[in-house]
Amino acid sequence: KSARATAALCSGLDDPNITVRAAAAAGLGKLQIGGTDCLSAHLASESSPIVKSAIEKALEQVKGGALPQIGPSTKFYISIGKTTDKSGRTGDGVDRMVHGSMAGAAGELAVAIAPDGETADAAKKVLAAHKGLRAFYLSPKVGPIEYGSDTLKVRVEIAIFTYPDKSLLGNFAVPLTQQGVSGKDTSSEGDLVKMAAERAMQKFPGIAAQIQ
User: Distance between CA atoms of 94 and 84, rounded to whole angstroms?
Assistant: First the structure.
């Protein structure tokens, strides 16, 4: 029941093997702690009826799944919004990378991730049941991918809002640079975006602790 599994299972939906894709979808359905965005995105492009069926079942399970695990050590309840993507890429791949990496990093922190598409009323019920839990809405943004003579630069910005009413509280950024990149490298771009998103979530609790 670790949120870190969500990103890996979402990646499995891109596997060329039908059995692997179906198993990845089934895994997300069983996990029930995220993956709605990547399941929905792959449903439209999936060619195998077997995998389509597995994705549809998983979507029903994830959307109607159990509430996030909130324990005695949980301090923050976080809803992650859709990524504003200025990277220049097409599709929703960047959003899936950012969301998956942030949710995965949260699994090692005192952070519970709200279900995708959670309503304000549902969020209020969770917070009413867990007094003292601080709730925030995080809105990620990936800036333009920059290439230098031998470098690759990525910047992930996070706007912090109250939750569920979404009043702006502030923002912070995580810029990362990779050396030794001589030309356009989409694989390195993806790795750096994921790393920046993960570090943003790791950085968040310290920033949130300073917000009154």
Answer: 9
Sign of the Cα pseudo-torsion (175, 177, 183, 186, in order): negative
Q: Cis peptide before 164, with omega less than 30 degrees from 0? A: yes
What Rg, from alpha-carbon coordinates, does the chain have? 17
Helix (H) or strand (E) holding 111: strand 111-113
Nearest CA-CA partner of 188 in 177, 201, 197: 177
Tokens representing residue 98 in the block: 């950012």
Give pTM, 2 decimals.
Answer: 0.71
**CA pair distance 132, 54, nearest whole angstrom:** 39
**Tokens 């692997």 -> residue:** 20
- Are 46 and 14 contacting, i.e. CB atoms less than 8 angstroms apart? no
- Residues 105-155: pLDDT tens digits? 887 788 888 887 788 998 998 899 898 899 999 999 999 999 988 999 999
Nearest to 156 by CA among 107, 95, 89: 95
